[in-house]
């Protein structure tokens, strides 16, 4: 756990420096409005045990957009937390409690299309990609067999690609594919995320 937290702290510091280096001198200050986006939605696991626990994990988080949030090209830092828990039996003799949680910290680069007025704000398509880290917690509790129980915490590199649409000045919808560079108990942890966002 400490190793994961130290890794996330180091990545956060590096990503923050990267964002600051990409912001021009004339950019908006950190106190300017509409640079934060609160997000909520579901994540759809790709396969295996994660999918059997739940085919729609709850997901929520925040994204901070550096510089001018209405620019055509915007850098951002995003943190998303995803979790699911249920009892499953398919591969066990008795039902067991399974829980997965994932925290992603990403440095994203977003490109907006310009609208009919020639500006990149309000009712526009956006797309982009990001890189960062994925912290994953996986836990299985089998009261009938300690051999089936485990508590596994991992930190992997990760990446994402996304596309979405901004509705007016504050709302957005987004589809994002999270790619995890590793496996937990031989299970891939990639997810497709469907998210709603509100800028403030």
Give the topology, please.
Layout: H1 2-22, E1 36-45, H2 48-53, E2 57-65, E3 73-88, E4 96-112, E5 124-141, E6 150-167, E7 171-180, E8 183-184, E9 187-188, E10 191-199
Antiparallel strand pairs: 1-2, 1-10, 2-3, 3-4, 4-5, 5-6, 6-7, 7-10, 8-9
Description of the structure:
The longest helix is centred in the N-terminal third of the chain and has 21 residues, at 2-22. 14% of the residues lie in helices and 56% in strands. Strand 8 and strand 9 form a beta hairpin. The chain is elongated, with a radius of gyration of 19 Å. The protein has 2 helices and 10 strands. The protein has helices at 2-22, 48-53; strands spanning 36-45, 57-65, 73-88, 96-112, 124-141, 150-167, 171-180, 183-184, 187-188, 191-199. By secondary structure, the protein is mainly beta. Residues 7-32 have low confidence and may be disordered. The protein has a single domain, classed as Porin (Beta Barrel). Strands 1-2-3-4-5-6-7-10 form an 8-stranded antiparallel beta barrel.
Major sheet characteristics: 8 strands, antiparallel, barrel
**Low-confidence runs (pLDDT<50, min 5 residues)?**
7-32
Cα gyration radius (Å)? 19 Å
Task: Provide the CATH architecture.
Answer: Beta Barrel
SSE series: HEHEEEEEEEEE
| CATH fold description | Porin
Report how far apart the termini are: 32 Å
How much helix is in the residues? Answer: 10-25%
Q: Assign the structural class, choosing from mainly alpha, mainly beta, alpha/beta, alpha+beta, or little secondary structure.
A: mainly beta
Number of helices: 2
| Residue-averaged pLDDT | 79
- Main sheet: strand order: 1-2-3-4-5-6-7-10
β-strand number: 10
CATH top level? Answer: Mainly Beta
Strand content: over 45%
Silhouette? elongated
Integer count of domains:
1
């Amino acid at each position: 756990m400490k190793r994961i937290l130290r890794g996330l702290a180091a990545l956060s510091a590096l990503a923050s420096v990267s964002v600051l280096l990409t912001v021009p001198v004339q950019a908006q200050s950190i106190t300017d409005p509409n640079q934060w986006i609160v997000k909520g939605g579901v994540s759809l696991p790709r396969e295996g045990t994660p999918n059997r626990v739940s085919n729609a994990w709850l997901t929520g988080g925040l994204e901070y957009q550096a510089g001018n949030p209405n620019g055509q090209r915007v850098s951002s830092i995003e943190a998303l937390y995803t979790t699911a828990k249920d009892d499953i039996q398919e591969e066990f003799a008795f039902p067991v409690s399974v829980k997965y949680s994932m925290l992603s910290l990403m440095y994203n680069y977003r490109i907006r299309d310009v609208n009919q007025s020639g500006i990149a704000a309000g009712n526009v398509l956006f797309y982009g990609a990001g890189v960062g880290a994925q912290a994953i917690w996986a836990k299985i509790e089998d009261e009938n067999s300690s051999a089936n129980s485990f508590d596994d915490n991992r930190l992997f590199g990760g990446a994402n690609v996304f596309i979405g649409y901004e509705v007016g000045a504050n709302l957005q919808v987004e589809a994002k594919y999270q790619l995890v560079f590793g496996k937990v108990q031989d299970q891939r942890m990639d997810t497709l995320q469907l998210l709603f966002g509100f800028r403030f």
